[in-house]
Design goal:
- Among the domains are: about 160 residues, no CATH class; about 80 residues; about 220 residues, no CATH class.
- The chain is built from 32 helices and 25 strands.
- The strands form 10 sheets. Strands 15, 16, 23, 24 and 25 form a 5-stranded antiparallel beta sheet that branches.
- It has about 950 residues and is α+β, with helices and mostly antiparallel strands.
- It starts with a helix and ends in a 25-residue tail after the last strand.
- Helix 14 runs antiparallel to helix 17 and helix 18 packs across helix 25.
- The chain is about 50% helix and about 10% strand.
- Belongs to the phage and mitochondrial RNA polymerase family.
- Its EC number is 2.7.7.6.
- It holds the Pfam family RNA_pol.
- It catalyses: RNA(n) + a ribonucleoside 5'-triphosphate = RNA(n+1) + diphosphate.
- Keywords: DNA-directed RNA polymerase, Mitochondrion, Nucleotidyltransferase, Transcription, Transferase, Transit peptide.
């Protein structure tokens, strides 16, 4: 396959040379024009590298994107093109002509290694030196269209030459023959109602790949580093030594890049660089004892501790006897076979993911590891190596330990015991009780450490079994050592916040009641916000049950911490009512005593009560979130004063009743709304929300047309997403700021530090010191009067912006100014007004399932501004929910309200004009003294 592809690429390059040198013009003029576009890029790498990249990328993407035995064409083409681009950039970096660049980076690397670079004066000097030596960017970014064209020609050449030999029989002679069949082929299939191009992999290849060790055919490109990462001296200069990384993962938002450049040029990002360097300098190692057990479990081929079983390809079920005559039976047979194949595909993907992790762990078993970090657009830090790092699942975390060991000391052994109790799920008790829990299970711990696969396997009962096993081994070895206090421990001990988003909201709003629920105030035992919400809901249910509400009678006494936990956790990150209702519905299905035919209606009712309880517990948080959302809405609808078109300064719109609205240029106003919500974190990191109604562009390739987003074209903002995403994104940015501040504080205290968003890790002996740093940095952060600073920034940033205002004349006969009502943009919000609480109980009588998902709009309805959480990480909720779902929610409710109020509309006039933007007054802050956090032992625990 490789040799044939090389021959095909050589032939294509000869054709490219002929066209570029104008020696030959083929009959296909359009194809020659394409060669002029992609030819120079295809010639940047050797034929051998191009062939290897193409094969590896298509194998890597197999079974991705919901495509069974294949991949989406557009993704595959762009991935191949991007891989070619990355390899070329790496080649350029390694050339001798860049020796000066290497020399400068080596000297900076030495400063990083000895810790001097964490001195801000030294960092500032080195940053200026780096900028002077390298004033321009040596790695231009290829356009997406170029990536698609390069990927297309390489993928097409591979599909033309790659064949597999399949043994078969001649149907006439019954002799054994060998057929050559394409290993890859292009086709089209429906996905979510749309016809998309796919590249399919022959099932013979898929079966071989599923049985082979993944390391034989896949070579991950972004692995852990063996030395310290390159320190961050610029927003585009850090991470890997020979590959360029940017400080922020930016997609389709050139505006964000411009703001980062300006902040860097003004020297405002030094503390952000410093925090990322702290994370990158942490040394990691593979826990060989855990790896041994993982390999044993893997080799059995059975499902074990979240390692999926090895499953062979699903054979089609026998066709029903009435397959040809019974359409229902035929459809059922097809659907069941597809379900089985999808299940096998998903299982195979999960097993491949585990295989990746195991192979990387084996490769680095005797080596130190470092994870360079960068940020998402909200400022949250992530390791750049994606496949194996401490942000991964329980398996990854169980396989990892600190590369440096420290003696447990007088208190470290206690924290190690507390850590095991946390992993075992015994984390809602006092620290003393948690330590005692471990002592009460010493026999189980010893058995787990000595015979993890053959013994009683107590460690498998833990919520995080592989991390539990690693800690069992550590505790066993410490106890059996001559002196546990002198035992050199490498296990990271975690300190987790109590629903960090709510902690920040409570601090911002000065909410004493909320602060008590999330451990900002000292207490004898840790407060559990999820249990607190469950108890508050139960109180509401008992009250309403006494008033005769049937739903309350059914649910009373059945609301547990488990039922409300996911909703409370995701509320702070902006889950919609639809998403919250779905979460609670799933939990109610698992609850005994809930009538199956009433689960949907009861989940709608219970979600309303959960939101109401949250509003009562976190009144300040609710008010702040509403202020953030309203401010974002006004910003997203505003435009700079100097770009207001004369024809939209004042637009008349006449309403003549239902179905008789005269077309206006109001859409022209919406088309001018280009303003993103932009703010600056307390560490001076600028953040631009990337949500725009991006225009799509068709790129013609020789395989198929590919639709890509074109970020270079001016596009109006997506007002809905700008508004809904801002409250959770703002809280994420505060959480990220606290983490980076804590990282800097820990390196000053000479601690090893790692973080998983709102979970902070260090050695057992240093936990108490780290906790002091966490509390101190939280206090410093919130003493900055964050909300007032944000308001001032908005007022300054958008002071010359205009906001669209709608004016309505109730009686067209009256002159303008007498019957006029200034609506602001409230009219649009009223159009989508929620049904009130008293109406909610019986609204399922006339609403469909989708319509019944809409929440009541009451003052207690908190956290309704965000989007659904994605399937991987609660920290990345809010961002990806389809806009159509939100629009459908509003339309469904509007329809329901129209059914209730069928009053005939009177004719009226409306005028759209522009006014200087203003913001609502900030909510009053409560009486919480943020200094009280210093006294809370359970702030992080």
């Amino acid at each position: 396959m490789h040799q044939e592809l090389k021959a095909g690429i050589k032939a294509e390059i000869r054709r490219i040379d002929a066209v570029l040198e104008r020696k030959s013009i083929s009959e296909d003029v359009e194809m020659d024009k394409e060669r002029i576009l992609y030819g120079p890029f295809l010639k940047l790498l050797s034929v051998d590298k191009l062939a290897i990249i193409t094969i590896l990328e298509l194998l890597r993407l197999n079974n991705s994107g919901g495509v069974i035995e294949g991949m989406k064409s557009a993704r595959a083409l762009i991935s191949i093109g991007k891989a070619v681009e990355s390899e070329y950039n790496a080649e350029q970096m390694s050339k001798k002509s860049n020796k000066a660049l290497f020399d400068q980076r080596y000297s900076v690397h030495q400063l990083y290694g000895n810790g001097r670079l964490f001195n801000m004066a030294v960092r500032k000097a080195e940053t200026k030196r780096s900028a002077a030596l390298h004033p321009t960017d040596w790695t231009p970014v290829w356009p997406e269209s170029t990536r698609a064209k390069v990927g297309s020609v390489l993928a097409t050449l591979l599909m033309d030459c790659a064949k597999v030999k399949i043994p078969s029989f001649d149907p006439e002679t019954n002799k054994k023959i060998v057929e050559e069949i394409p290993a890859f082929y292009h086709n089209y299939q429906y996905s979510k109602g749309q016809l998309i191009g796919v590249i399919k992999v022959h099932n013979y290849i898929s079966e071989i790949l599923s049985k082979e060790p993944i390391g034989t055919y896949i070579h991950p490109s972004l692995l852990p580093m063996l030395v310290y990462p390159r320190p961050w001296l610029s927003y585009k200069d850090g991470g890997y030594l020979a590959a360029q990384s940017t400080i922020m993962r930016i997609r389709h938002c050139p505006e964000q890049n411009d703001y980062l450049k300006k902040a860097h040029d003004e020297g405002l990002l030094l503390r952000v660089y410093n925090g990322l360097d702290v994370l990158g300098k942490t040394q990691w190692a593979v826990n060989k004892k855990v790896l041994k057990s993982v390999l044993e479990a893997w080799n059995t081929g059975k499902e074990f501790a979240k390692i999926p079983a090895a499953v062979s390809a699903a054979e089609d079920l026998p066709k029903p006897e009435d397959y040809e005559t019974n359409s229902k039976a035929r459809v059922k047979w097809i659907a069941e076979n597809r379900r089985r194949k999808l299940e096998v595909m998903n299982n195979h993907s999960l097993r491949c993911d585990v295989n990746y992790k195991i192979e990387i762990a084996r490769a680095f078993a005797d080596e130190p590891m470092y994870f360079p970090h960068n940020l998402d657009f909200r400022g949250r830090a992530y390791p750049i190596p994606p496949l194996f790092n401490h942000l991964g699942n329980d398996l990854c975390r169980g396989l990892l330990m600190f590369g440096e060991a420290k003696a447990l000391g007088p208190k470290g052994f206690t924290w190690l015991k507390i850590h095991l109790a946390n992993l075992a799920g015994f984390d809602k008790h006092s620290l003393t009780d948690r330590a005692q829990f471990t002592m009460d299970h010493l026999d189980d711990i010893f058995d787990s450490a000595d015979k993890p696969m053959e013994g009683r396997r107590w460690w498998l009962q833990a919520e995080d079994p592989w991390q539990c096993l690693a800690t069992c081994i550590e505790i066993t070895e410490a106890i059996r050592s001559d002196d546990p206090e002198s035992y050199m421990s490498s296990i990271p001990v975690h300190q987790d916040g109590t629903c960090n988003g709510l902690q920040h909201y409570a601090a911002l709003g000065g909410d004493i009641a909320g602060a008590e629920q999330v451990n900002l105030i000292a207490s004898d035992a840790p407060q559990d916000v999820y249990s607190g919400v469950a108890q508050a809901v139960e109180r509401l249910l008992k009250k309403q049950a006494a008033e005769g509400v049937e739903s309350a009678k059914i649910l009373s006494g059945k609301v547990t911490r488990k039922i409300v936990k996911q909703t409370v956790m995701t509320n702070v990150y902006g889950v919609t009512f639809i998403g919250a209702r779905a979460q609670i519905e799933n939990r109610l299905k698992e609850t005994e005593g809930i009538p199956a035919d009433q689960v949907r209606a009861l989940s709608t009712y219970l979600t309303q009560q959960v939101f109401a309880s949250l509003g009562e517990l976190f009144t300040g948080a609710r008010a702040i979130q509403e202020w953030l959302a309203e401010s974002a809405r006004r910003i997203a609808k505003s435009i700079p004063k100097n770009v207001v078109s004369p024809d939209t300064e004042e637009v008349e719109e006449r309403h003549l009743g239902k179905g008789r609205k005269k077309k206006t240029s109001k859409q022209a106003i919406a088309d001018q709304q280009m303003t993103s919500v932009i703010w600056t974190t307390p560490l001076n990191l600028p953040i631009v929300q990337p949500y725009r109604k991006m225009e799509h562009k068709q790129v013609r390739t020789n395989l198929q047309s590919v639709t890509i987003k074109d970020p270079t074209r001016s596009s109006p903002v997506n007002v809905q997403k700008q508004r809904t995403a801002f409250p959770p994104n703002f809280i994420h940015s505060l959480d990220a700021t606290h983490m980076l501040m804590s990282a800097a504080g820990c390196v000053e205290a000479k601690l090893t530090f790692a973080s998983v968003h709102d979970s902070y890790w260090t050695h057992a002996c240093d936990v108490e010191v780290m906790n002091e740093v966490l509390r101190h940095q939280f206090i410093v952060l919130h003493l900055n009067n964050v909300m007032k600073n944000l308001e001032c920034e908005f007022m300054e940033r958008y002071k010359d912006y205009l906001y669209p205002v709608t004016l309505k004349i109730a009686n067209p006969g009256e002159p303008v100014g007498e019957g006029m009502i200034a609506w602001d943009d409230e009219r649009i919000r009223r159009k989508n007004t929620r049904i009130t609480g008293s109406e909610l109980a019986d609204k399922d009588e006339f609403l469909s399932d989708s319509e019944a998902s809409t929440p009541p709009k009451t003052k207690s309805n908190m956290f309704q501004f965000g989007d659904e959480d994605d399937e991987h990480d609660l920290s990345s909720v809010i961002i990806e929910e389809d806009e159509e779902e939100l629009e459908a929610e509003a339309k469904a409710l509007g329809k329901a309200l129209r059914e209730r109020t069928k009053t005939k509309k009177a004719a009226h006039k409306m005028f759209h004009s522009w006014e200087p933007i203003s913001f609502p007054p900030l909510p009053d802050r409560g009486d919480l003294d943020v200094h009280d956090v210093a006294k809370s032992d359970y702030f992080f625990s």
